[in-house]
Amino acid sequence: MNSTRTHFRRVAVYCGSSGGVGTHYLDAARAAGAYLAERGIDLVYGGGRVGMMGAVAEGALMKGGKVYGVIPEKLKTRELAHEGLTELFIVDSMHARKTMMASMADAFVALPGGWGTLEEVFEVVTWSQLNYHKKPVGLLNVRGYYDHLVAFLDHAMAEGFIRPIHRPLCASADSMDALLDRLSKLQIPDIGRWIDKP
Q1: What is catalyzed by this enzyme (predicted)?
Q2: Between these two residues, 65 and 17, which has the higher pLDDT value?
């Protein structure tokens, strides 16, 4: 890691269509969206208007930010697509949704969420490891939500299933400010440095 910093124009945020228990997760999502907008960073997200997805979009919109949603046709009604965005893209599959979000964003942040959020964040980390892109990925660890996952990733590294050179590819922090600062400095290893090594 060095002092070189990357400026992000657009950040993709993965998060749940549920709000979790209590209001603290929704409050954190709204604050994350507002944080991006206040810094002139566009938000790319899953296009819904409910749960964490709706909250992060509203947080950005309330601060005058640009918000781009990407939602599959099949989920447009089920997830109650947000109609007040800068632009809403309707795609034909989950694969198309993930591909479009990845192509639009300069970095990826996972807020609390369930199966879909975990699947999305691990996929873009894998793409980063394999140099399909060189964009940083991080977990916003709201109220310790990702503590057990972070501990598991450290365990996977200790057991030899994640190389030490790749462990930083999934960063974490408990505030957007700290997380984006960490992501802005992250150096993604070139695949040639490790692919042929045992």
Answers
A1: AMP + H2O = D-ribose 5-phosphate + adenine
A2: 65
Give the three-state DSSP class for 163. Answer: coil
Q: Between 176-185 and 24-38, two packed helices, what is the crossing angle to 10 degrees?
A: 50
Integer Cα distance of 36 and 66 in angstroms: 9
Compute the distance between CA of residue 130 and CA of residue 53 in angstroms, rounded to an integer: 28
Residues 6 or more apart whose Cβ sits within 8 Å of residue 161: none
Instruction: Using only the alpha carbons of the chain, give its radius of gyration.
Output: 16
Selection from 137, 189, 185, 178 nearest residue 5 by Cα? 185
pLDDT band of 66, cuts 50, 70, 90: very high
Q: Which residue type occupies 53?
A: M
> What pTM did the predictor assign?
0.92
Q: Report the alpha-carbon distance of residue 95 to residue 113 in Å, rounded.
A: 18
Q: Which residue has the tokens 């007040």?
A: 84
CB 143 within 8 Å of CB 182: no
Q: Which two tokens stand for residue 48?
A: 């819904």
